[in-house]
Structures are given as structure tokens and as C-alpha cells.
Amino acid sequence: MLSPWQQYLLVTLSYWSFTLTDGALRMLVVLHFNSLGYSPFAIAMLFILYEVCGVVTNLLGGWLATRLGLNRTMHAGLLLQIVALLMLTVPDEYLTVVYVMLAQALSGIAKDLNKMSAKSAIKTLLPEEQQGRLYRWVALLTGSKNALKGVGFFMGAVLLQVFGFAGSLMVMTGLLAGVLILTASLICSELGQMKVKPKFREIFSNSQPVNVLSAARLFLFGARDIWFVVALPVYLQMVLGWEHTDVGTFWLSGSSAMVWYRLVLQ
Fold first, then answer.
1. Phi and psi based region of residue 192 (left: phi greater than 0; alpha: psi -120 to 50; beta: remaining)
2. Is 84 exposed, middle or buried (0-12, 13-18, 19+ CB in 10 A)?
3. Residue 186 belongs to a domain with what CATH number?
4. Distances from the Cα of 195 to the Cαs of 66, 72, 114, 178, 192, in angstroms?
5. Which burial class, exposed, middle or buried, applies to 61 when counting CB atoms under 10 A from its CB (0-12, 13-18, 19+)?
6. Three-class DSSP category at 247
7. Domain range spanning residue 35?
8. From the CA atom positions of the chain, what is the Rg in Å?
9. Tens of pLDDT, residues 52-104
10. Contact 257, 144 (CB under 8 A)
11. What is the phi-psi region of residue 37: left when phi exceeds 0, alpha when psi lies from -120 to 50, beta otherwise?
12. Which of the four pLDDT bands, split at 50, 70 and 90, describes residue 6?
């Protein structure tokens, strides 16, 4: 039986690995489909179901985890991401907008299943009297997200330049498969299961401030993705003629600056 600290490390490994591949996949899709001649609008459409499915998964994920356990929902996220990556390894002529949207939909579900499970699992690993330690563990996990997402963008650009689109997807599939096997065999299978199962209607908040903040967050992240995930990489590649690795390095430096600001200046 692993100690709470060891299980925390495994949960963090799962979350970090997924965050890296999720950022890399975004950059791969944008750069590759731009090079195939897709318009910026068509590229943006590829992420519509990704975001919509992420919203729905965030809404239902906690309720689902109380029934299946956080261990199962976390690994379901890893497995769905592997399926989404493999779906995109088909020849370019089969990569239609609708097909890629469906693959991205699976990736959106996978992302929020894994993220929700990883963050919630930490709370179950510590007793209630150690809340201070819990906050530090959660801060370490979530605080690494922006840095790792930037590294993921850089990783995707480098992989695309070195291995090509399908080869990059296979490399990331192998990484996630290894993490899935390791964590599934070592993390407690009962992690996060609850004896009292909440009713489905309890997933909705009755607090108006919470609902307003949720709506604001939806538009905030939508605006962020329109500019930084699609428009900016396409502009850098098409107008300025940057190589894949140049675009990825730009993202990596921006992510590092954000982390430095949060850690030192705030």
C-alpha cells in the first residue's frame, strides 16, 4: 500500500503528463492544419466541440466521480486522450473538419476528467486536520499548469518539426500509455469513492454569485482561446513566416514569464 505522499506523486505524474500532451496536441493541430491550407476560421471550428465537451464534463464530472471513484475517472481521461490521439494518426485525406472535431471532443472530455480527478484526489489523501498541507499540495499541482502548458506547446512544435504530425501523435500516445499502466497498477482503486451518493440535481449551484462567476469564466477562457490558441500561432506562421519551433518557443517564453510574475511579483 502506497503512502499518501507516494499516491500524490503518481496523481501529479498523471496530471503533468496529460497537461503536456494536451498543450502539444493543440499546437500540433493548429500548425499542421494551417500548413494543410485550412482557413483560420476552419481551424477555430476544430476546437468548438473540445471546449463544449469540456464544459459539460466539468458539470458532470464530480457527480460521476462520486459513483465510479476518482481513480477510474482519472484513468478514463488518460484512455480517452489516447483514443483521440490515435484517431488523428490517419492519412491527411481523412482529416476532415467533422472528423477532427469529433477527435477533439474526446480530448475535451479527457482533459476535464483528468484535471478534475487529479485536483480532487489530493483532498482525499490527507486528513481534515492537515488543511494547510493540503493547500500547499494543491497549489503545487495547479501552479504548475501554466508552465507545463507552455512546455507542451513547445513540445508539440518540436515534435511536429522532427517526427511529423502522425509520428508526434504516436510519441505522445506511448507516453500516456506508459503513465496509464503505471498509475492504474499502483494508485488505490477506491480513491475518491463516496459512501453517500449525491443526487444528480445537486450538481447545479443555487448561488447566484457562483453562477455569474461561472458564466464570466466561460467567456474569459473563450476569448483567451480565440486569440492565443488559434489566431496568434496562425499569424506568426502565415504572416511572419515563423517555423514550428519558433512558434513553440514563443509560447514557452510567455508561459515562463507568467509563472515568474506569479511566483515573484505577486
1. left
2. buried
3. 1.20.1250.20
4. 8, 16, 22, 31, 10
5. buried
6. helix
7. 4-265
8. 19
9. 888 788 777 666 767 777 788 888 999 999 999 999 999 988 888 899 989 99
10. no
11. left
12. confident
| Number of domains making up the chain | 1
Q: What whole-number distance in Å separates Cα of residue 178 and Cα of residue 180?
A: 5
φ, ψ (nearest 5 deg) of residue 191: -60, 125
Contact (CB, 8 A) for 136 and 82: no
129: its cell numbers: 486536520
Q: Is the pLDDT of residue 255 over 60?
A: no
Helical H segments across 36-144, by residue range:
40-45, 48-68, 70-87, 97-124, 131-143
Handedness of CA 36, 41, 42, 48 (dihedral sign): positive
Grid cell of 259 as nine digits: 509563472
Cα separations in angstroms, 219 against 44, 65, 204: 16, 26, 19
